Each structure stands twice: as C-alpha cells, then as structure tokens.
Amino acid sequence: MGLLRYNPARTPFTNVSVLMPTHKYLAHYPPNLLTQVESMIEAGRLKTYLTERYPRPHTIANDSDLRDYVMAIKNQHLKTSPPLSKIMYDSKLHVVHSALGLHSYATRIQGQKLKTKNELRVSTVFKKTPEAFLNMIVVHELAHLREKEHNKAFYRLCQNMLPAYHQLELDTRLFLIQTEREGSFYE
Ligand SMILES: [Zn+2]
Asked: Does 123 reside within a domain?
C-alpha cells in the first residue's frame, strides 16, 4: 500500500457515526480512509508504514529543549503573536482530549486586569516520537495563538508554517492508534 493521503480540499469532512474503537483518532476523516487504515491494521502493516517513513525519534528531551524548539518556530512564523508564558511537556494531558487541542489558556487576575496567559503544553507522548510529529503538534498549538477555532484560517496558518501539515496530522493520528494498540516503538 502506498502513502495514505488526505487532501481536505478534495475530500470533504464526513461524520462517521459508527467507528472502530481505535478510530476515535480519525473521527473526522472520510470513510474510505478509515477502511484503508482498518485493513492496514488487520494486515499488521501499520507499524511498518510508520517506521519506514519515520525511522527515528527526535532528541528534544526536556522542557528547556522544547522551549528552544517552539520559540525557533514561533520566531520564524509568528513573531508578532502573543508571548507564551509557559512551554512544557505535560504528563497529565490526554492526547485526544478535544482531538489534537493540547493548548491551554490560563486566565489570571493580576491587579484589576484580567489577563490571559498563553501556555503551550505538549503531551509527554510526543517525547518519544519522530520530530515530524512534534513539529506538527507545535505548529498546531502555535496556530491557536492567532485562531482559536479549527477553521479554514487556522489550517491555512498551519500549512504556511508546515506545508505537509495535513499529511503529518494524519500520520500522527496513525502513530497514536499504533501506540495505543502495541505501545510506542520509538523507545
Ligand atoms: Zn486545536
């Protein structure tokens, strides 16, 4: 099987009401893609699909490295966007909590003013992934500094920062399915 491709411009989102349990990660993808993924899983080929394309994990091992990594991307693409008060790996974050929405916006009262602080938290699941997947998650979260909703402008921004964004989001979701089934293979 070749590369699983997903092009939102050509393939409209379809709601699939009956999903295999593992496909909670793919709830908004078209049914034909779900069928393809299902047959890959049945044939035991999902791990190979992933490891052939993404053989190595990244080495961004701690919060300090993560901060450098995130700020490099932010400074390149979103210099004028609001600052990030905190950048960290978070072991309490569930990866599928609101799909890929791993961002948190903390509102704190400082004096008389209500201030919103932007925090960028990445689930620790992404400590042991290829750099491409971490890149995708970080781009997704940074795009939320400008667009809170998952709308067209949001995905345009993601693609500007990372042209392969849609492919990488799909492949990241496949990785999460594989990890849930058999554990991570980038240890
Ligand atoms: Zn999001």
From this structure: yes
